[in-house]
Amino acid sequence: MKKNRKLFRMVVGVIVAISLTTACATHAVPPPPAAAPPAQTTTAAAPAAKTTAAAPAAQTTAAATPAAVTTAAAAPAMPSAADLQRVVKEAYEKFKDVTDGKNADYIPELAKVPSELFGVVIVTAAGDVYTAGDVDYAFSIQSVSKPFTAALVMQEQGDQAIKDKIGVEPTGLKFNAILATQIIPQVSVNPLVNSGAIASVSMVQAKSAEERFNKILDFFNVLSGATLSVIDSVYKSEAATNQRNRAHGYILAASDRIYSDPMEAVDVYTKQCSIGVTAKQLGIMGATLANKGINPVTKAKVIDAKYVPKVLAIMMMAGFYNESGNWAYTTGLPAKTGVGGGIVAIVPGQLAIVGFSPRVNDAGNSVRSAKAINYIVNELGLNIFGSGK
Ligand code: GLN
Question: How many whole angstroms separate alpha carbon 74 and alpha carbon 233?
């Protein structure tokens, strides 16, 4: 009996041991699946980080290093000083003999500017300046002024005010198209075409036209780190021939899209367009946008960093007017042109490129300036959509 009982206990013991082991084993099984998902997430996060450079994913996983590496590779690397100086000189040499286009003459004074003038400038977000050609000649800023006044309005009233009161849609039409202003109730314009720019000027908060203009001029002074002034002959010439812009002013007034006296706004706008800048000064204005709103030379904080992407967005969509699509397609940088021959293009976080050459095409965009900037962008792989290399 005793033997049997002992045997019985042994058998029970073995059975209990076996079932315990099995139970433990059963309990032990879940942890791997439970542990598996994090492992899978980590693995999954790595490819995601590779293809999208998604910072949040990278932060939560061990994939941070590859993501960081990939992000750095996706953004164009900052070119060396030697390369910057080389491409500025090359762009100048390569296009200095191009004679396509002609000086704008609907503002008679612009026809008198020597057509041969040609300057190329790069100003980095660190304040380094690289130049070739006529970079100290003061020409009228014209429409290159428009994004900067829009920035001033954002500083005063926030970026939503620009969206609500003017609009941010490209028109696909010429810079001075009356049609663009007429269809405002259906499709907004933007601060970079004449009607939107006149509206933008009218939004600058001031009690008088004089105060409004001085605010704009002061803002441009801080942006450029210079003391700028109106080229009086250009102002008088445009003021005497700006019937079309006055028409914009009245049509805007008729649809409640102007925010000061319309003729006063047109006059301040005309003065703003007549402000003289050199290619170098414009380069610093552009580099302030490239440097999150801080003038890289004087270190003055001019535009809140949060507004800079808004300004660059409208430049990307409408900076070249009815050639904005072509510019995005061939060059891929936010930029702004003016009929005085200036163009400024921005590589966010890195630098600004300026071209100055008075001969413009039918769209009012400087031929050699555009070619020079396009050359530099392609040489250094600065297209914000990727270098394609
Ligand atoms: N002052 C010029 C105008 O109103 C500006 C045009 C331009 O530079 N595209 O016509």
Answer: 47
The continuous run of DSSP H or E covering 251 comes out as helix 243-254
Q: Say if ligand 1 is within 6 A of residue 245 CB.
A: yes
CA angle centred on 213, ends 210 and 216, rounded to 5°? 150
Ligand 1: which of 103, 105, 106, 107 to mutate, most ligand atoms within 8 Å of CB? 107
Q: Are residues 106 and 3 in the same domain?
A: no
- For residues 153 and 171, the answer to whether their CB atoms sit within 8 Å is no
Residues 299 and 374 in one domain: yes
CA distance 65 to 75: 16
pTM of the shown model: 0.82
Counted domains in the chain: 2
Question: Alpha carbon of 358 to those of 85, 116, 117, 224, 304: distances in Å?
Answer: 23, 8, 7, 21, 32
User: Are residue 12 and residue 113 in the same domain, yes or no?
Assistant: no
**Euclidean distance between CA atoms 87 and 273, whole angstroms:** 29
C-beta 272 within 6 A of ligand 1: no
Residue 353: strand, helix, or coil: strand
Per-residue pLDDT tens digits of the chain, which is 389 residues long: 444 454 445 444 444 343 333 333 333 333 333 333 333 322 333 333 333 333 333 333 334 444 444 444 456 689 999 999 999 999 999 999 999 999 999 999 999 999 999 999 999 999 999 999 999 999 999 999 999 999 999 999 999 999 999 999 998 888 888 888 877 776 679 999 999 999 999 999 999 999 999 999 999 999 999 999 999 999 999 999 999 999 999 999 998 999 999 999 999 999 999 999 999 999 999 999 999 999 999 999 999 999 999 999 999 999 999 999 999 999 999 999 999 999 999 999 999 999 999 999 999 999 999 999 999 999 999 999 998 87
Ligand 1 centroid, distance to 40 Cα (angstroms): 58
Q: Which residue spans within 1-86 are E strands per DSSP?
A: none
Domain that holds residue 171: 82-380
The distance between the two most distant Cα atoms of the chain, rounded to a whole number of Å, is 128
SS3 of residue 183 by DSSP: coil
